[in-house]
Amino acid sequence: MQESSFGALVAALRGRSGRGRRRASSRSARIRRVLARPLSHSYIETVITVKNRVTEMLGVQYPIVQAPMGWIARAQLASAVSDAGALGIIETSSGQFDAIRGEIAQMRERTTKPWGVNIAQMFVRDVSEVVDFVAEQGVTFVTTSAGDPTKLTEKLKALGMTVFHVVPSLRAAQKAADAGVDGLVVEGNEGGGFKSSTGASTMVLLPLVATKIDLPLIAAGGICDGRSMAAAFALGAEGVQMGTQMVAAQESPVHENWKNLICASKETDTYLLNQQSSPAFRALKTPLAERHRNEGTVSLAYGKPEDMYYGGDFEAMLALGGQVAGRIETIRPVRDIIESTMTEFVSTMRALSERV
Ligand SMILES: Cc1cc2nc3c(=O)[nH]c(=O)nc-3n(C[C@H](O)[C@H](O)[C@H](O)COP(=O)(O)O)c2cc1C
């Protein structure tokens, strides 16, 4: 794990020096020299290749995953993420399989880079239909979420897929590890979307899981840049997943109203709703969310979801989003988000090493 945290820095040095692999004994001197140099986006793009369990399993340059999100995690966004060196994910939680089939066909046209699919078990009518669908599409990387990992893991792995399960607690992480998953997406409660009403934050959950379970971990919840990515690596992750940040990306298909709301939100502008029923979910503060914030049971949609997602009508549905909205100020292209994250990740590691 410690080895992989420094993989980016070591790879950076190898690329810059052009002399290939060197002896481990000179590693710290080399890392110090790389860290002493000024960093720019183009520098990161050309020389950083992070090598750890997550990048190896996902086949990506950067250990950054775009979160699966119903109606949002489709080809326009996911292909931009994959093309930028991270991992795009296609959603199935909307249940619109005909549309998703088309999105997957588009992924093949838009990018040659790796990408994956999420199966949000609670939200799909017929789970085995989705498994067959995903297998038919030749998908090799799947995240499973919102359901029992023992139901799908064996089947998906028998079909040759790499499987990461999304977990909100240590207990769930242990169950997924016992079910034989290849890795975990460890999701803190500050994140946007469906949550446990009593879930712990990334700061507590991630190191807890990292110290008990030896599987590659992708951290989710509260991550939007290199500073938060470095924090996740310090807590035990080898990769990060971004949800709210990607909703606000230029290539995200949602209406500008939603992107602008994220950029205008403070860190205190989310509510954990539906806490008396399962699952709870974290949504941005809108007039609709305000009216329902004190109710134990809250519906997610009050009209057609598409009217909110693509029409920007905040009365049609609650707008899912995480506390990290308070750290997102502008709508930016995906490539800029990914490259600035990697640049800041490395410079944050440098700053940390200077503080001790
Ligand atoms: C609008 C929205 C929709 C989401 N839909 C899903 C989903 O379909 N499946 C899933 O596993 N997670 C879903 N999530 C959770 C994300 O995958 C991700 O883990 C979370 O957003 C991370 O926290 P962050 O928002 O602080 O980045 C959703 C999140 C958001 C904001």
Overview of the molecule:
The chain has 356 residues and is an alpha/beta fold. It has 3 domains: 2-45, no CATH class; 51-252 and 331-355, TIM Barrel; 256-325, no CATH class. 44% of the residues lie in helices and 13% in strands. It contains 17 helices and 11 strands. It has helices spanning 2-5, 7-17, 27-35, 41-47, 53-58, 75-83, 97-110, 127-136, 149-158, 170-179, 202-212, 226-234, 244-247, 256-264, 287-292, 305-309, 334-355, and strands at 64-66, 88-90, 115-120, 141-145, 162-167, 183-187, 193-195, 217-220, 239-242, 270-273, 280-284. It has an 8-stranded parallel β-sheet. α7 (97-110) links the parallel β2 (88-90) and β3 (115-120). α4 crosses α17, α6 (75-83) packs parallel to α7 and α9 runs parallel beside α10. It is globular. Residues 67-70, 72, 91, 93, 118, 120, 145, 166, 187, 191-193, 220-223, 241-245, 247, 320-322, 324 line the site of flavin mononucleotide.
Gist of the model:
With 356 residues, the chain is an alpha/beta fold. Helix content is 44%, strand content 13%.
The spatial strand order of the largest sheet comes to 1-9-8-6-5-4-3-2
Sheet having the most strands: 8 strands, parallel
Number of strands: 11
Overall residue-averaged pLDDT value: 89
Shape label: globular
CATH-defined topology of the largest domain: TIM Barrel
H/E topology pattern: HHHHHEHEHEHEHEHEEHEHEHHEEHHH
Unreliable spans: 1-25
- Report the top-level CATH class of the largest domain: Alpha Beta
CATH superfamily of the largest domain: Aldolase class I
Number of individual domains: 3
Q: How large is the radius of gyration?
A: 20 Å
Level-2 CATH architecture of the largest domain: Alpha-Beta Barrel
Counting copies of identical and different chains, the oligomeric state is single chain
Structural class determined from secondary elements: alpha/beta
Task: State which percent range the strand residues make up.
Answer: 5-15%
List ligands, each type once.
flavin mononucleotide
Note the gap between the termini: 20 Å
Q: What's the total helix number?
A: 17
Kindly state the percentage of residues in helix: 40-55%
